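writing this on my phone so excuse typos. first protein, seq and then structure
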Amino acid sequence: SVNQQITARWCPSTGGCRSALFVWDPVTSAIIPVASLSPGDIRVTLHLIGSLTTPNIVFDPHFRGFNGLKYDVQGDTDTWFNLLSDQDIQFNGFFQSITGSVKDQKTYVRKLGVVLDGHSILINSTAVEVDGSIFHKMGDHAEVEQILTNSKGAAVATILASTHSVTFHTPAYFITIAQGSTTPGGKAQLPLFFNVEDIELLEASRQPHGLLGQTAHTQLPKEDAHRGPQGEGVIEGVYTDYIVSSAFGTDFKYNKFTL
């Protein structure tokens, strides 16, 4: 079989996330670095390109939970929903139909809002904003990075943006986001949306909630359990319980954010 490429991301305790390419040989199970790495105090997270086993939210929108379960939550157009809520991070998504019609039940995640200890991040089709200031313009090939600290000077996240992708690393999570687009039937390209390609949970003791977050600590439903278009059979409560008032809202039934 063909060797597959792996991207490794690591973040020193002093900050400054970096990446490197590896090749995985499926015959020998060897992971071969393309270039040598410097030793040091690092945390390594491996992402197998094209993997179908990592938690994600993609397209219109399809969810894969931390427990590996596939399910859908269509939500409502022009509405913010909580995706992940934990003690030190709030991660919200703006669901919107591509056509702009309230009758169109096919929604996409068109914006993302993140709240951390003392910081807010807004990701939309044109830019990434950190605390209200533009950090990165979508499409700009320059790679930019920033370490965010709280009022006590402790690092709460490292954010890295390049072209059409954004990653941020907190003590408990590593999240990868990429812009997507679709051209159904060969028609003109539709407006950009976002795929949350991977969310790594780095601390197993965490008990997050949210449309995706809750799957980190819930059991898989029975195979014959009914699963509806709004998370029925998977999520706690009903999908409207996860509506928040804004990009940085924490005002929903199962909120866990406490900072």
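second protein below, same order as before
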Amino acid sequence: MSRCAELINTCASVDFVDINVGCPIDLIFKMGAGSALMNRHTRFETIVRGMVEVLDIPLTVKMRTGIYEKNCIAHKLLPKLREWGVAMATVHGRSREQRYTKVADYDYLMACADAATPMPLFANGDILSFEDYNTRMATDKFAGILIGRGALIKPWLFTEIKEQRHWDISSSERLDMLRSYVNYGLEHWGSDTQGVDKTRRFLLEWLSFLYRYIPVGVLEQVPQKINERPPAFVGRDDLEMLMSSSRCDDWIKISEMLLGAVPSYFSFLPKHKANSYQ
């Protein structure tokens, strides 16, 4: 990690480097990385101090409340991070065991902010509207809010926060966003067969989040909550209906609108629970 930090410091132009100690994925956890580092204090300290030593820019850390739901330890680690040289920390309001179930524990996050002082703390979890953002920032405990799933489900969320409004975005506007995303992918990976396939896979992964958005114009109660199961609804046009589908076959159809027909050898298995395509 120190060598990586040194390379970034020398060869890249970035504002800060962040260590993700929040990843709950089994493969990462079993390797002793991600959220497992929260229980490996000596290794964690060695990584942080080594990176701080070689960086000319701030080092930040993101973590969860702990490994297990009933044993929160982030508040104990935050003073250590401050001592080791971390410039800012983010805490996601769930444990590794919880993954993304139940609601984020903002009462505990406020206690974490007190424990981290004077190091700034960003809170993370369950932000899908400007009201969610305003409510959490109104506590005056947090230096800011980190948005994860909310940005994948509703990438225009940042515009809503900035302008303090609900954006009833049309299906055609959403398709334009997807078209821009696809163009970025082709520019990065190339427009040959391999580049198109890779762009399609990333697009389909994103669509496995995007379909969860419920248009403001059809909501019975505004705003949508990130952990509430979306009610069945009828879209205002065919494209809006297609974009709301949880079926991978329909995500494939959207990808074909932007990248052409799927080749016969193509298969797709979403990383998150959803139907696969073969």
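The chain has twelve helices and five strands. thats all i got for now
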